Amino acid sequence: MAFIESTLLDRVSYGFEGGPGFNTTRVPLFSGIVARNAERSTPLHEYSAPYNSIALEHRTTLIAVFNACVPGPHSFRFKDRADYTLSGEAIGTGTGGADQTLQLTKTYTFGGQSTVRNIVKPVTGTVVLLQDGGALASTVDTTTGIVTFTSAAGGEAITASCSFDVPVMFTDDRLLTNFANWDAHTAEINLMEDLSA
User: Fold this and answer.
1) Contact partners, residue 52, CB within 8 Å, separation at least 6
2) pTM of the model
3) How far apart are CA 160 and CA 87, in angstroms?
4) Is the peptide bond before 20 cis (omega within 30 degrees of 0)?
5) pLDDT confidence band for 94 (50 / 70 / 90)
6) What secondary structure letter does DSSP report for 13?
């Protein structure tokens, strides 16, 4: 298995579906109460991505990606059109030491409940790190989402903004394409997040 640091063709059509999913066991009790147990603490994102009325060159690209990925063993980047940005996201606090590292994260909050998601595939050239309104000198590993500060960051909160991709794999062993006419081709692919990437 290998991870390919390239992004799948960003030309999905209307009708795109996908998002996070958890795995919860629900057991109705005699009292009427439903006992619930979360079997997974991290969501797994799945997508159904239609490519409608795409040009021949784009259909050729999809076929090339599918064949190169064989299609199961290899994973790659995908832009989730519903959720692909960080904007002023608090990711930690500076320690004042040199070479401090932090993982890019995104926090989803409702009331007093929050879930933190690691952002492991930031898009090159989009990451901006700020502390107290000022830019922080840093390097970004776009293959892991880990940022390293090249100068000491004080004790204030550090925020991050960027675009990010999701590491995904094909879930089907066949790629079906359709010729609507000579200039319009269609295909639909199903993808699942690769949490091991």
Assistant:
1) 13, 14, 15, 184, 186
2) 0.90
3) 7
4) no
5) confident
6) P
pLDDT of 116-153, one tens digit each? Answer: 999 999 999 999 999 888 888 889 999 999 999 887 77
* Tokens representing residue 191 in the block: 């993808």
> pLDDT tens digit string along 52-68?
888 888 889 999 999 99
Pairing of strands 166-170, 184-193: antiparallel
Give the whole-angstrom CA distance, residue 9 versus residue 12.
8
List the strands of the sheet with 128-131, edge to edge. Answer: 85-93, 157-163, 128-131, 134-135
* Type and span of the H or E element at 59: helix 56-69
Phi, psi of 34 (to 5 degrees): -105, 115
The two tokens of residue 92 are 């930690």
